[in-house]
Specification:
Two copies of one chain form a homodimer.
Chain A: H1 4-8, H2 10-15, H3 23-31, E1 37-39, E2 44-46, E3 54-60, E4 63-68, E5 74-80, E6 99-102, E7 106-112, H4 113-120, H5 123-149, H6 152-169, E8 173-174, E9 177-179, H7 184-191, H8 195-207, E10 211-214, E11 217-220, H9 223-230, H10 241-245
Helix pairs in contact in A: 6-8, 6-9, 7-8
Chain B binds a DNA duplex (30 and 30 nucleotides) through α8.
DNA sequence: CGAGCCCTTGAAACTCGTCAATGATCGTGG
DNA sequence: CCACGATCATTGACGAGTTTCAAGGGCTCG
């Protein structure tokens, strides 16, 4: 058998880094992906207050969790990239306490809760989902530290390192470069700073020859230096050695 | 039967706000609390890198999750109050990516994973644990917004409102006042600011007659105004109406 | 070709951090 | 019971980092 998943299903690529699967597990995970829906950029998937019934899975593109404060300031609390579940919460909480939206054009799958419950009966899959949820939480903690303690320049360096590893884990990095379909304003709303300052700080990072960033294409010119500068330790992503080392499947 | 839990077990008081339990559920939850251990203030419970085998539950006092950056700056990412599990993660991740420590003197229970697995077989308890974990995550998101978007004064107002509701939910608030056994330095490390600035901002809040804070006793003088000022919306705590309204069991 | 979004720049104001020193409080031991 | 040291709270002065406001330029798309 040759599952699409093995080469192109980001959910499977991601979860395989946590847990070994049987062929049957892989088949079930792959069958989860039916009726992909195209969602254009900057469109809400779910809004705060909604009582959703399906679980959403991102298959391509960038989405985010966000809240908007009364003043109108948007706050991005997480990026959702291919292979990420948006809202496994649905099972136990009856109301969304934040919103989800696409940032770039996305392909999204809506999975009925019943399907998820079926999958949870397979121990390997249940464990993989569990780990994925914990890694999301660990990432949240790391973002909290990042925003709370680091100056803007290091903060961005840290984020760019994290995104490299996460995208690599699902085969979406090409060496030390990847597509980052976000505006400077999106990045600013993520890092808790103004877009003006984000612009200046990105210029600094470019000036120091740490990165290039044009047309939504990010190139990390010296990962080791960027990692050191942003004080990035990937332990919180709980990736296997294999996934850490992988160079992405590139072209 | 009259369980200790019904009146004094914070774990039960907290979980009852999420899910209704049978007598048998209550009994099992109450029996979880054996061999309480006194831990003095400012002592690590688990450290980053450890591979723990037990799950820890706080029964009294304040503890926290934290990381320390290379420069030596400590970063508090969560407060753990009576009724909170420290590390349900243990089941699936093999290494702590952060540390846990007491802030005040605490009573802590160490629960073997096997005991937890037993409890998870009871649907109501499993659901309550699940919800508690999701609320922890939602709280983390809210802290991220808080630190990322609000000026220092509002940030603190928000935190103080949150702690009021959380402590009420486990019967540890007395009307609009509660014990907050933290130093200004602890608070500063939590809110991503210097202790000098924390001091000045607390003075402002006191000057505006929003709070009093002496001898580790916090009094919220005008909750409605503090809530409004800190832009606090408790939806992310997913408390029932009952728990929201409760005035704490006070004296 | 124009509209709209995004990136870029400058200047001024402000929030907040750092440094350094002084008080206040508390537990401990003499 | 008081002296002591340690921890914690407070204050002032200064500077760095960051925001805000405002405006101009570039690119893309209809």
């Amino acid at each position: 058998m040759n599952f699409r998943g093995v080469v192109g299903n980001p959910l499977i690529e991601k979860l395989r880094a946590f847990v070994p699967f049987t062929e049957e597990d892989l088949r079930m995970l792959d069958e989860l992906v039916v009726a992909e829906r195209e969602v254009e950029a900057r469109t809400d998937i779910i809004q705060e207050g909604d009582k959703p019934s399906d679980v959403h899975l991102v298959m391509s593109g960038f989405a985010c969790r966000y809240k908007v404060l009364p003043g109108g300031k948007r706050n991005i609390m997480a990026y959702l990239i291919p292979g990420d579940f948006c809202d496994l919460h649905v099972f136990v909480l009856n109301e969304m306490d934040h919103s989800l939206a696409t940032l770039s054009p996305c392909r999204v799958v809506a999975i009925p809760r019943a399907r998820i419950l079926q999958l949870l009966e397979r121990p390997a899959i249940a464990k993989a989902f569990w780990i994925a949820a914990l890694v999301d939480e660990a990432t949240l903690r790391e973002w909290l530290v990042n925003i709370g303690s680091r100056p803007a320049e290091e903060r961005i360096a840290h984020l760019l390192c994290e995104m490299l590893l996460r995208l690599r884990a699902v085969g979406l990095a090409n060496g030390d470069r990847y597509e980052l379909p976000l505006t400077q304003n999106d990045l600013a709303d993520t890092m808790g700073m103004s877009s003006v300052h984000m612009n200046r700080v990105l210029q600094q990072l470019r000036g120091e020859k740490l990165i290039e960033f044009q047309q939504h294409n990010l190139v990390i010119l010296d990962f080791e230096r960027l990692r050191e500068f942003g004080n990035f330790n990937p332990n919180y992503l709980h990736l296997t050695q294999r996934a850490l080392a992988a160079n992405g499947n590139g072209v």
